[in-house]
Known about the structure:
single chain; about 375 residues; alpha/beta; 8-stranded parallel beta barrel; two-stranded antiparallel ribbon; 12 helices; 10 strands; about 10% strand; elongated; binds prephenic acid; CM_II_prokaryot; Bifunctional 3-deoxy-7-phosphoheptulonate synthase/chorismate mutase; Class-I_DAHP_synthase; DAHP_syn_2; transferase
Amino acid sequence: MREHQLDELRQELDEINLKLLKLLNDRAALAKRIGEVKQKQGINKFDPERERAMLETIVKHNDGPFTDDTVRYLFKQIFKASLDLQQTSQKKTLLVSREKQAADTVVDIKGTLVGAVKPQVVAGPCSVESEEQVFEVARALKEQGIELMRGGAFKPRTSPYDFQGLGEEGLKIMRKAADEFGLKVISEIVNPADIEMAEQYVDVIQIGARNMQNFELLKAAGAARTPVLLKRGLSATIEEFLFAAEYILSGGNSQVILCERGIRTYERATRNTLDISAVPILKNESHLPVLVDITHSTGRRDILLPCARAALAAGADGIMLEVHPNPAVALSDAKQQIDIPTFDTFIKNLRASRLLDEKPAIVR
Ligand SMILES: O=C(O)C(=O)C[C@]1(C(=O)O)C=C[C@@H](O)C=C1
């Protein structure tokens, strides 16, 4: 008899569960609509004043057996879930998102495509030091069939006493060498006021890891019509990285390449920790092409090849690495750049694994 009573009570509870579920979802649908109205009006989604007023009314009507505190706690969870829903549906409409654009963005750098079928290699010295140095690297790239040359003219260094780069003079050298060997130039810009000047020389504006959340620089890059390579910040989450890219797209520049360059963790065996999982996550969440900087993420020459293979196998649209004619005397990153013979062997090995021919097919 008692067992029978338990069954009956449980059946009643089951029915209430379903009623509650229906009510909760009806409420969620309303909260979502409120979120859309707030979005249009530019109002903050989180409204603590409204939450406080609702809680007050609810508690006033509480006849128990739940205590007022328990009721407050339960409703606070409902408000939080509604807020998450409002924010998630907003995220889905970001310009960088796959929801907004299902097809991959292909960045066209004067005929060199990033994000198309064939992965690209971006290589070059950490810093532009002299014409001779850049010409030597440019020649090596040309010989290996590489089309994209990187080189820093404005160097945001950790220490103010380290080499800060040659500035505009460095960009001129990059342009001259690129024109001589038919390459495209990628170089970092750190000051929004320099973008217009830089566009005379570079084919891609790089925004470095330390500037990923320099919002004025992101806005200036958004107003430019030159493709942008945006590096992930040292301690940036994938969400923060995508929001940074959103600044550029929302400014009107859709030609953005994302670059995973390693993140800060407790691990000391590498300079940073290459977050390989960021590659498929970024590719799933965004239509923008993704490169992996194997030099800065590892800071080690001895594991460049397996890391490059891993990046390309994970679906990266290309890799980036530092090459210097004589790394031992380089003015920056002497320990991690590779010399030209090592670069030649590296590219040959990568080509032998056929990972540079075509990206792996991804079924979404
Ligand atoms: O009423 C609002 O303004 C809402 O956005 C809805 C709602 C809720 O779920 O009750 C959601 C988040 C806000 O912090 C406050 C309330």
